[in-house]
Amino acid sequence: MEPLTDTVSAVARESRPPRLLDQIRHRARLLHYSLRTEDTYVDWVRRFILFHGKRHPREMGAAEVAAFLTHLAVDRQVAASTQNQAKAALLFLYGQVLGLDLPWLADVVAAKVPRRLPVVLTQREARDLLLQMNGTMWLAAALLYGTGMRLLECLRLRVKDVEFERRELIVRQGKGNKDRVTVLPENLLLPLQQQVDQAQAWHRKDLDAGLGEVHLPDALAVKYRSAGRSWGWQYVFPSPVRSVDPRTGKERRHHLHEHSVQRAVAAAARRAGIVKPCSPHVLRHSFATHLLQAGYDIRTVQELLGHADVATTMIYTHVLNKGGRGVRSPLDAL
């Protein structure tokens, strides 16, 4: 017979409210935030609590939030975007998790993000970079440069969203949770078809092992219970190994990890002798700039990139003129 003390302690544990960090995770999942955002918010809240000597956030307010953000900016010297990310996590904590309607929340000033010109490769540099890559990493990088997709948009591409006959790709749930259509380069039709064939072979292997289910967005897994194992929902760039989903505990084959492509692009840039800081996102910048240089309308480029405001796309016009804004230096007249 189970001791009475053990029964009482078990009931007490069950009646105990969930830990604050667990509440953040539960709320983030309820609002369909990505796992990346969930982990980021939990990490910033943990840092905030530790910074103030493990005091509960209910005991703190505007002064403590401002002190933490000032610490990040002055002592840690983080970028303005990082400081704003920490602020967003704390606003989520107080507004969405603790449910505190505090007037000072609106008074927490966001850091001013400086306007930076994007790093853009020349067409020769883009060619040299791709020549230093091969296999799946080459295909992923070539798609980034050839379509203007963001890195995670590329890696999360599903088989059903590749239109070989129409020569287009459908980007689902891009930034701002928006869908859009972008171009599929003719030169990538055959390599992409080969990649899809490889992904299908792995999917069949998973099905034979009693697995083969892929993560589905939102509540589609509940609405269409067999969709997770269907071929069309599989990733175009599946990971070569299966892993356990941290949210459900199910063993699945996720997409390639973005760090793999980031490392491959950085290594290829070094081998190609490119001295500019080069990341996968630079290929997106280069796609937009080279289209504008080729004479395409800025509205068309805006739609391909998925920008909500054409002003965001306008930043790429900085390289369209010769030299510094098309000005001829007086030194050249000597």
TrEMBL record:
Xref: InterPro entries: CB, DNA_brk_join_enz, Integrase-like_cat_sf, Integrase_catalytic, Integrase_integron-type, Integrase_recombinase_N, Integrase_SAM-like_N, Tyrosine_recombinase_XerCD
Domain Core-binding (CB): start-end pairs: 21-98
Family annotation (Gene3D superfamilies): 1.10.150.130, Intergrase catalytic core
Residue ranges constituting the Tyr recombinase domain according to the UniProt record: 116-329
PROSITE patterns xref list: CB, TYR_RECOMBINASE
The keyword DNA-binding belongs to this UniProt entry's keyword annotation: yes
Keywords (A to Z) from UniProt: DNA integration, DNA recombination, DNA-binding
Protein family per UniProt: Belongs to the 'phage' integrase family.
PANTHER family the UniProt entry points to: PHAGE INTEGRASE-RELATED, PROPHAGE INTEGRASE INTD-RELATED
Protein name stated in the entry: Integron integrase
Lineage: Bacteria, Pseudomonadati, Pseudomonadota, Betaproteobacteria, Burkholderiales
